[in-house]
Design a protein that fits this description.
Length: 304
């Protein structure tokens, strides 16, 4: 039997590790809230699961299974850099990327190249992307990590069956900024694919912008090996597996997040007891087959 859990939070949420249950379905809805979730293996040994509840003005009960060390903060400046919220859409782009079917054109070839369905960006700067594509992957591979890469998606539609739509291999940070309605669809039937997200990032990535980003994936939605930040944007994500998977943290500030997944909605896990989840002033709805939000560190991160 599936279980539905609805969270309406009005002041502060602090959630520790949530253990998965294979036959559970949970729905999480949260708004105008701020909090941090962090786990530690030592605290996990001392603390059993507990249920906390609170009522909002609407009279709806809030319930969440929590365990491990709990810390909280309401200071966004500790969680986000200026680049995470900076709007560069009005600035001149260093290069443009035009997508058209199975081809892609980079206006300044000193900043990258296109071959075999992969458009590779190799240096920092602002890149404005437009058009629609099939089986094109935009890869950021700045091995010198020369600075931030701003990727402005301007009413972009991308579909891919073999590689992530956006693939971050090396960069100081990649900021994906949306304009209008943008869609990334990853329909890879290879369930053992190493690059298993529509957005796949080995380095830090931020998603922001005034537009709407729709992500659909037959695997995971977003995979970020380090930090993922989502600020002041609209994100609609549907994934057959995990919605958002991160190695260090997921931090959300502002905007509207609607997430549907077959497994965990948001999963953060690592082995060094530093995994955490933070959000503030965001409207967030999660419908998941397992946990809505799972934060695991140390010994609890074996299933990541």
């Amino acid at each position: 039997m599936k279980k539905s859990v609805v969270l309406f939070l009005s002041l502060l949420l602090t959630v520790g590790a949530m253990t998965a249950c294979s036959d559970n379905s949970s729905t999480t809805n949260s708004n105008t809230t701020s909090g941090t979730s962090q786990t530690s293996s030592a605290a996990s040994q001392q603390s059993a699961d507990k249920t906390s509840s609170a009522d909002t003005s609407s009279g709806t009960e809030t319930s969440a299974q929590t365990s491990a060390e709990q810390t909280s903060t309401t200071d966004n400046t500790q969680q986000f850099a200026d680049s995470d919220t900076k709007d560069v859409t009005g600035e001149s782009a260093n290069a443009t990327i035009t997508l058209s079917g199975s081809s892609a054109t980079l206006s300044d070839t000193t900043r990258g190249s296109f071959a075999d369905g992969v458009l590779t960006i190799t240096s920092k700067g602002i890149y404005r992307v437009s058009g629609s594509s099939e089986n094109i992957s935009i890869q950021i591979d700045d091995s010198t990590k020369s600075g931030n890469v701003y990727l402005i998606l301007d009413n972009v539609t991308m579909t891919n069956t073999t590689n992530p739509c956006i693939d971050v291999q090396n960069s100081d940070k990649v900021i994906i900024q949306t304009v209008g309605t943008c869609s990334l669809t990853y329909q890879n039937t290879d369930t053992s694919a190493k690059k298993d997200g529509a957005v796949y990032a080995k380095d830090d990535v931020t998603i922001n912008g005034s537009g709407t980003l729709n992500i659909t994936s037959s695997l995971h939605g977003i995979v970020a090996k380090n930090d993922l930040k989502i600020t002041n944007t609209t994100l609609n994500l549907q994934a057959d597996k995990i919605g958002i998977q991160a190695g260090d943290s997921v931090r959300i500030s502002g905007g509207t997040i609607t997430l549907t997944s077959g497994h965990d909605g948001i999963q953060i896990a690592n082995d060094d007891n530093t995994a955490f989840f933070y959000y503030a002033d965001a409207n967030m709805t999660i419908t998941s087959g397992y946990d809505g939000i799972s934060v695991k560190s140390g010994d609890d991160s074996k299933t990541f």
